[in-house]
Write a structure and sequence with these properties.
87 residues
Length: 87
């Protein structure tokens, strides 16, 4: 079952072995988390920030176009339409 609050853990599960890419994802995700706390940014947007590069995960590559592969994976996982669309 999809839980927006677990986006960072899902990202870590699939992307933590990707070196500089993982560092980039953490920076973007943490900034989005901060914007949720400080400015009321929606949690769905923050989840998409954490997951925007999930399509780079080797196990998720289907087309080779990371935005499409990531969105398809998240749709299959039951992510909200807003998260899927942003990814």
């Amino acid at each position: 079952m999809w839980q927006t609050e677990q986006a960072s853990e899902l990202a870590a599960e699939h992307l933590s072995d990707l070196g500089p890419r993982w560092s980039h994802i953490q920076t973007v995700g943490r900034l989005a988390d901060r914007m949720v706390m400080d400015h009321g940014l929606s949690t769905e947007i923050a989840a998409a920030a954490w997951l925007h590069d999930i399509g780079y995960a080797p196990a998720l590559v289907a087309t080779g176009f990371h935005p499409m592969d990531g969105a398809a994976f998240l749709a299959d996982e039951g992510a909200p339409d807003q998260v899927v669309s942003l990814v």
